[in-house]
Every structure is written in C-alpha cells, then in structure tokens.
Amino acid sequence: MLRGFLEKDNVFAVGADRRSLTSGNQFCDKTYQIPRFTEEEAYKKAIFKIVEEEKIDVIFPSLHEEIELFQKFRSELDALVALPESEHAELLNDKEKVYEFLAEHQLTQYIPKYVGFTGTHQIHKVLKESFPGDPYVVVKEVTGYGSMGFSIVTDREHYLAALRKGKNKYVNVDDYADLDSDDRRIAMEYLSGTEYSVDVLLHDGKVVTAVPRERTGVSSGIVLDGKVVFNEDLIHAATQITEALADNGFLNLQFFETAAGFKLTDVNARFCGSQVMSLGAGVNFPYLYLQYNVLNEQVKVEPVWNTRMIRYREHFFIHED
C-alpha cells in the first residue's frame, strides 16, 4: 500500500505499529508506536488519537486480525476505514458462510465441492462420506488466512511420498485427527489447476475494475512470481461475486481454474500484500480508493496486461545513533 503512495505529493502517509522500527517506517512520512491489537481498548484509544492529531482521512488496516476490530468501531471514527462496506460484513471472513451466501444467490457455479465440520476428530468420517477415493483433500479453518490453518490431508502412503519431495503442507489423516481441535473447518476438493487472484475495487455497488493475477510462484501464502492477465470469464466471475458480497471498497478473491470453470477458494476482505502486482500494471488500488472515496475523482482504469512481477529481498541500513 505504501508503495502506491510514494510518488503522490497529495498523500501524507502515517504509519502505526507495535514496534518502534519496521521496514514500513521507511516509506512513511511519520510513524507512531502503538499497543498490539490484542490490547483492544489501548489500541482503539491510540488509533483515535492519531486520527485526531494527524487529521487522518482514511485508515488502511493491513493485518487480517485487525478486520474484526475495526468493524466494531469504524462508525465511531472521523475517518474512512478502507475495508469493504457490506450488509454482509460478518460473513466475509468466514469461508463456509461465503459459500452458503453464494449458493443462496444462484452463484453455485463458482463453489468447489466442500463440506463443513467441527472438530478434527471428524476428519475420517468426512473423507469417507464426502470424498471417497480422493487421494488428497484440502482442509482449512473457516476463518483462516494466508497459509494458516491450511492442510492437505491424505493417507500415510501419499503423506510419505509428499514428505520425500519436501512438501510440508501434506498431513497424514491419522495425525490430523489427533490434533484435538474443535475449530470449525471445511474440507474441500483438491484443485490442481492454475491459481489466480483477482483484485477488485467497487464503488456504489458496481465494480470499477477487476484485475486478475496468475499466481505462478507462491511461498507460505506470499506471491513471489506472478503475472497480470486479461481473462474475461475470470473478470466476470469476480464481478458477480464481489457485487453480491459488498457495496463499496476493495476485495481480493482467489480462484483455481478447473475443467468445470473457475472455483472460488478464498475471499480477502482487505488490501492484501500481493495487490502490489497490480501497481506494476498501472492500477494503483490504494490511491484509486482515495480517488473514488475522498477526492471524488472517478477515473478510467486501463491495466497494462501481461505485466509480470518477481519479488526479491531488499535491505535497509539504519544508523541508530
């Protein structure tokens, strides 16, 4: 997000973090050290103080864990919060509820085969009844994000074969059953096609732009290599889903391409880190949000298709004296 503001003279970026020194500080005009989000009242008080002192127009939450917190008190703030505005905000961070909602709105063509269950001890029953004969089944926590809570469950033979190849997300079904967790989860068909993300900005109930990205190389949920691509069917799918789920703001949707069409695997109801790929293709989503919601500039968006991004590590050297 900060990279999208770097060359904008009309944006003053204020960073806030529980640490006094972060790499993000280097891209901010001013920074504050604040309590951790788990200290809810102290965190809230610090945010209100920054909004007042710096005359903040928009807050861009960047942690998944902050979403629920900001949803609680966004109406009390004298600033916009760059999270989706929706009558269905409570379901945006729950994969099972999103699928149920899409089914109710005749969008079943985008839903992969899945089943919800409570408690890891149920996994044997789930696989036997819903996925008989499937060598691999994906299991996620319904509120998980990134690669957290994500496992590919399989039998011992396939687990050992995956382990020999260094694939660490594969789990032996017997071990998974012994996790002794009562979290709500979904088991989903294993999809092996091309994976895509789609960055979407809505305004007043209509999609302004939808930018698909091919996720070529991914590590621990972070895209290391990818390309912005034009795909009319994928743009149509993202538009239908987004306009059903929200009224205003930014969402990121993740899909797999299958023989039966594109299947939705995740909804990220915040500005995700990988949307920086769209910036390279000429679509500055954070600034675009400001244009539509603060500056009243409804600009035309023309992505530069087939733009490829490759990430690399970068270093900062700070002389603390």
Molecular structure report:
- The mean pLDDT is 91.
- The longest helix has 15 residues, at 40-54.
- The protein is 27% helix and 27% strand.
- The protein contains 10 helices and 15 strands.
- The strands form 4 sheets. It has a 6-stranded antiparallel β-sheet.
Strand order of the largest sheet: 14-13-10-11-12-15
Strand fraction band? 25-35%
Helical content stands at: 25-40%
Q: Radius of gyration in whole Å, from Cα?
A: 21 Å
Instruction: Indicate the mean pLDDT.
Output: 91
Structural category? alpha+beta
User: How do the SSEs run, as a string of H and E?
Assistant: HEEHEHEHEHEEHEHEEEEHEEHHE
From the spread of the alpha carbons, the general shape counts as globular
Alpha carbon gap, first and last residue:
29 Å
Number of strands: 15
Main sheet summary: 6 strands, antiparallel
Number of helical elements: 10
Flag low-confidence runs.
Answer: none
Write the topology of this structure.
Elements: H1 2-5, E1 14-17, E2 30-33, H2 40-54, E3 58-59, H3 66-73, E4 80-81, H4 95-104, E5 114-118, H5 123-130, E6 136-141, E7 150-154, H6 156-164, E8 170-172, H7 173-177, E9 184-189, E10 195-203, E11 206-219, E12 222-228, H8 232-245, E13 249-258, E14 261-268, H9 276-280, H10 285-293, E15 308-310
Name the features.
six-stranded antiparallel beta sheet; alpha+beta; five-stranded mixed beta sheet; globular; 10 helices; 27% strand; 321 residues
